[in-house]
Design brief:
By secondary structure, this protein is an alpha/beta fold. Helices cover about 35% and strands about 15% of the residues. It binds zinc ion (2 copies). One zinc ion binds near residues 86, 114, 153 and 154.
Amino acid sequence: MSDPIMYDMHMHTPLCKHAQDLPVDYAAHALSQGLKGITFTCHNPMPNRFSHHVRMEMEQWDEYLRIVREAQDEYKGRLDVQIGLECDYYPGYEDFVQGQTKWIDFDYILGSIHPHLGEYRKDFWQEEPIDNVKKYFDLLAESAELGCFDCLAHPDLIKNMLVKFWDLDAFMPIIKESLDRIAETGVAMELNTSGIYKSLSEMNPSIDMLAEMNKRNIPVVIGSDSHISTRVADLFPDALNALETAGYENISYFKQHERHDIKITDARNSLTK
Ligand SMILES: [Zn+2]
Ligand SMILES: [Zn+2]
């Protein structure tokens, strides 16, 4: 085992109302897994009570900063604890989100589309599965084009709402068109290991989509999307294997919005077995 070099770039705190454990607990588990750092990406507070049941309230913002800084202080010199945000991309809220990404000096901003939210179902859900796929991947490309996200979270999440209808071959032309637009922007995309626990049990995205991302030189950032401390770095060896199968040689993480690349072989050797 070599020195820690990997980051887990996606995790939540209890402020999002569906996670447990404090940042200090996540930090403790990260150290035990051989990570160099972790990045908190709690769901962004939104105006108009937009899906407020899964995110912190505006007035909890200071508490978010406080609990993350508590972990930063406690683990100083041992683990790099970063502060980020998982921001919903949703038409009508572009200006708000763009401003929000400058609220503080974030290390990392994930842009997300959550098609399971009530608002999305009401505004965008369509009869035909293929129309839902088109809408989702069009919004995904739009979210990259907005220009304020470092990385796109769980970028094939729509498959979990279309489990019975998911047909990657049939949908691939739509996905490729979206990836062409995303590649133009230079925005990274996430490999989210929590997909294994979802209704369609595979990581987000799948290996075939990762291979298409690799063809377009889209950088990939790994995140566990932990909602409990014991999941930090969960399935990272599997994620590295999947990326190699898809043709990747490097993975990336961000600090102060700047991308850093590390070799997959080095990443694998750095993790606690
Ligand atoms: Zn998410
Ligand atoms: Zn998340």
